[in-house]
Amino acid sequence: MEKTELFTAALCILAAGVSFMASAALTQQPAEAYCSLKTLKGSYSYAIQGYRGGKPYASSGLYSFDGSGKVAILYTSSIERTQLFTTGTYTVDGNCSGSMTLAAATVVNNFYLSPTGDSFNFVRVSQDDVIGTEARRVSRKLIVKGP
Fold first, then answer.
1. Distances in Å between the alpha carbon of 67 and those of 14, 41, 50, 94, 114?
2. Residue 5: what pLDDT?
3. What contacts 141, CB < 8 A, 6 or more positions away?
4. How far is CA 114 from CA 9, 85, 119, 137, 144, in A?
5. What is the pairing mode between strands 108-113 and 97-102?
6. Which among 57, 35, 42 has a CA at the least distance from the CA of 144?
7. d(CA 71, CA 69)
8. Under a CB-based contact definition with an 8 Å cutoff, are residues 34 and 95 in contact?
9. How far is 111 from 96, CA to CA, in rounded Å?
10. Which residues lie below 8 Å from residue 19, measured CB to CB, with a gap of 6+?
């Protein structure tokens, strides 16, 4: 084989290897993150209906998420029948699912957030509780503030 043919063959093998490595790297990249804690920021109005403790339940109020993992809630419940306040924490995963734990309850609420952060939904199924809600952002500001 002449030097030119040998050089050309080596160059082709090298190019094929680089191409294979590049395509392998593309398929191994992590999934794109659509949401983060900052996606859930602002104040959201909501209405809940379902069963709590096996009895009919309804609640309505305002969630205020700070974009850093803390939430404050002002609400009225059909059980307590008065305006209440509580705080809690929340997480948001890159796939726009998340969870919220409130100081006033021991149950974790799993939710699903729109990538724009304009709304979220959740259904809580725990013991005798079956509760569903949809919340919509009404302000990018924190209307309800924690202590």
1. 48, 4, 28, 14, 15
2. 53
3. 42, 43
4. 52, 25, 6, 11, 22
5. antiparallel
6. 42
7. 7
8. yes
9. 8
10. none
Q: Strand locations in the chain, DSSP E?
A: 41-52, 55-66, 70-77, 83-92, 97-102, 108-113, 119-126, 129-139
The dihedral sign for the CA sequence 92, 45, 89, 51: negative
Gap between the Cα atoms of 75 and 83, Å rounded: 6
CA of 24: how far to CAs of 16, 17, 134, 144, in Å? 12, 11, 41, 49
pLDDT tens, N- to C-terminus, the chain (147 residues): 555 554 444 434 444 444 444 444 445 555 567 999 999 999 999 999 998 888 899 999 999 999 999 999 999 999 888 999 999 999 999 999 999 988 877 777 889 999 999 999 988 877 778 888 999 999 999 998 866
The amino acid sitting at 15 is A
Rounded Cα distance, 90 and 69, in Å: 5
First to last CA, the chain: 81
Question: Rounded distance, CA 134 to CA 88, Å?
Answer: 18
